[in-house]
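REVIEWER CHECKLIST
Item 1: Sequence provided? yes
Item 2: Single chain? yes
Item 3: Sequence as submitted:
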Amino acid sequence: MSTAPLASSFLPFALPDIGDEEIDEVIDTLKSGWVTTGPKARRFEQDFSAFLGDPGLHSIAVNSATAGLHLALEALGIGPGDEVITTTHTFTATAEVVRYLGADVKLVDIDPATLNIDPALIEGAITPATRAIIPVHYGGLAADMPALLDIARRHGLKVVEDAAHALPTTCAGQLIGTLGSDATVFSFYANKTITTGEGGMLVTRDAAIAQRARIMRLHGMNRDAFDRFTATVPSWYYEVVAPGFKYNLGDIAAALGLQQLKKAHDFQRKRAQIAAAYDAAFADLPLITPPLPPPGEVHAWHLYALRLGDALTLPRDAFIDALHARGVGCSVHYIPLHQHPYWRDRYGLSAPMFPHSQRAYERLVSLPIYTRMGDADVQRVIDAVRDVVR
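Item 4: Structure as written out by the authors:
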């Protein structure tokens, strides 16, 4: 790990790690004259498929993971009268895309050990209207995909993985994005394991899903601008074949992604080192450290979500305030969906329906874990946590 601390009196919760390589790639894009979706976006898609190591994959660059989830469900034909099962313990984007399509969400609780969706509860939530499952790889730890895929196969359901936290996570020895799901969606938001500022990637083996997503990400047009203006015989003509969306990723953002992707494994190793330092430093405290991946698997460590133990009487909010007073930024992942007025009121949800998510929420604190942190920054967090617990 780097020994150079961040030059600030306050340690923020997250910062992107942008180097000269990214800056040079963006400058090259600006000088090229092509700043919207074009050659860099196409290269980023190709490089992403190559990174995952599966020649059968289609990667479709989009302007957010939310857009990718929406496109995936739309391509699968999800619509009014359908139900999609996901976890209450996630950001609202996971569920809201279902509502975009007029379908309904069925929320289930989490496994209290992993904080991932509990496969055992999915079986009981399936109805004749159920069409799909959206598992979330919470914090960068893979959900139990073998169990989830088995349930989907037995019940004839589609699976769209919310992998916003999960690059480069593995499950059963395979990178997330290469499993048997219908589609997987990654996020490149500013605080994710790699960033394009705003952005995401939809990955699928299904050529029909890929084709539909490519059309729908840009107004339902059957040719994008890059194709029209760079073809051997340039043509201004295109056809709108569906009422699409504005979800394309521009080349300036893709330029960042091209260089960030090259660093993804190094970034993961640095995050894992920080997580290991935290685990060791907190082992004797009344705290529950995040679950580790099974032996041989990779945790992306997008989040280091600590839980306050029962022996610690200090309320979670007071714990965060105390860390903030010591110059350490924190967050909470997540305020469960059943706590939010829209989801609570629409589906008549209450905390007792989701005891594990509710309990976790009340005790969760996400600590800084990002690659720009030096040894002194990590030690600063450790010292602050230990001081507050004392």
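Item 5: Key structural point noted by reviewer: The radius of gyration is 21 Å.
Item 6: Recommendation: ____
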